[in-house]
Amino acid sequence: MKKYIKEAVEFLQSRGFGKPEVGIILGTGLGKIIDEVTIEAEMSYNHIPNFPTATVEFHKGKLIYGELAGKKVVLMQGRFHVYEGYSLTDVTFPVRVMKELGISKLLVSNASGAINLNFKKGEIMLIDDHINLQGGSPLAFKGVEKLGERFVDLSAPYDAKMNASLEEIASKNNINLHKGVYASVVGPQLETRAEYRYLKIIGADAVGMSTVPEIIVANHLNLPVIALSVLTDECDPDNLKPVDIADIIAHAGTAEPQMITLFTELIKTL
User: Fold this and answer.
1) Structural domain boundaries enclosing 228
2) What is the rounded CA–CA span in Å between residue 175 and residue 188?
3) Residue 220 has what pLDDT?
4) Which residues pair with 236 in a beta bridge?
5) ∠124-129-130 over CA atoms, to 5°?
6) Phi/psi of residue 256, each to 5°?
7) Tens digits of per-residue pLDDT, 203-257?
């Protein structure tokens, strides 16, 4: 793993990737923040040694380096998922590469379904805690202790200081920012009515198919991390309608300006 990370980092550095301060992982329908970045270098995933390749049609597949809100940033325009056939170590490999490039903070976004029916489509949830239902761990491999502490504490996986800043930014900008628990499932199928009821019982406010593996690895690397979910559908088991991916993408796009405000204003404080 160390060898693979070193190869990827050296390749990126040779292609103009400098030392970023902040890493950003962009989820479904949340790519327009790129328009705010002064791009200095970019590279398709399939050209980076040892990187997986994004296979989801609405996920781009580029790593971008540049300046945003006065800070050097590296952005994943598109992420990887277990449902694409990748292992959890594949999914989280880019986090390790970004850390080795130099990031000291990680910001993550995703699109998710609202289990908490007080939350509505197009709103944003600040993830305060999570439930890992992906059936494994990105730390469960031989030699993990060479990269960090094997038994990572997750009593507070999301950085309290950055979360507090995000709540303050939301208040100042009249953004309705919920706070809650995110459950991460494998997918790619959407949940049944019974599964939505189960998720509510175990304490989830939102459900998606990503993010938690990256959060675990960020904690393994002692990398402060926050995550925001755009709520793109309402998961009411008593009034469940067939999923409409186009509608999900549309609601992610509606919330995107607020997400950009939250991320850019947070970066200014870091």
Assistant:
1) 2-269
2) 30
3) 97
4) none
5) 95
6) -60, -45
7) 999 999 999 999 999 999 999 999 999 999 999 999 998 877 788 778 778 888 9
Residue bearing tokens 């998961």: 235
Overall number of domains in the chain: 1
What CATH number is attached to the domain comprising 38?
3.40.50.1580
The structure tokens listed for 64 are: 């971008």
Angle at 58 between CA 53 and CA 49, to 5 degrees: 15
Q: How far apart are CA 214 and CA 187, in angstroms?
A: 16
> Taking phi first (over 0 means left), then psi (-120 to 50 degrees means alpha), and beta for anything else, what does residue 153 get?
beta
Share of the chain above pLDDT 70, in %: 97
| C-beta of residue 181 within 8 angstroms of C-beta of residue 204 | yes
The angle formed by the CA atoms of residues 183, 188 and 191, to the nearest 5 degrees, is 55
User: Which residues 6+ apart lie within 8 Å of 193 measured at CB?
Assistant: 237, 238, 240
